[in-house]
Amino acid sequence: MTRDVKTVRPDQTAKEAAAFMLEEDAGSMPVSDGDRLVGMITDRDITVRGVAKGHGPDTPVSELMTSDVLCVRDDEDVADVATKMGKAQVRRLPVIDSNEKLCGIVSLGDLSRETDGEPAHQAFDGVSAAGDRHKQQG
């Protein structure tokens, strides 16, 4: 997992979140209140959902973020993490510790680099599978 994770606060603006994403070359960022994970915001949340609903660059992140975030624990088995990624069809998951504090992000790339490849293949198969039609609601 990547441990040095940049976050945005829920009271920051969509413009600030987008600037962080541009600087970090990231498509999503955790939203934290102190060291507690409270949501995730993606470039898609800002550009598709936000713009479609008439939100501007000064909209608070809290109005655009997803607050029901699937996480994994820092002590979870890699195969279980891969299964969760595949079922949820996501390429990245926040990692929290036993105190519910954000301690990293695990990605498909991490699984691919740090394992024999099987967990990454399992997750990728799930992420790539045709799923239900997504509805951009939040």
TrEMBL record:
Gene3D superfamilies, A to Z: CBS-domain
Official protein name in the record: CBS domain-containing protein
CBS domain span: 1-59, 65-124
Keyword Repeat: yes
Family matches, as PANTHER family: CBS DOMAIN-CONTAINING PROTEIN CBSX2, CHLOROPLASTIC (PTHR48108), CBS DOMAIN-CONTAINING PROTEIN YHCV (PTHR48108:SF34)
Chain residue ranges for the region called Disordered: 111-138
Organism, scientific name: Sphingomonas sabuli
Keyword annotations: CBS domain, Repeat
One Pfam family in the UniProt entry: CBS
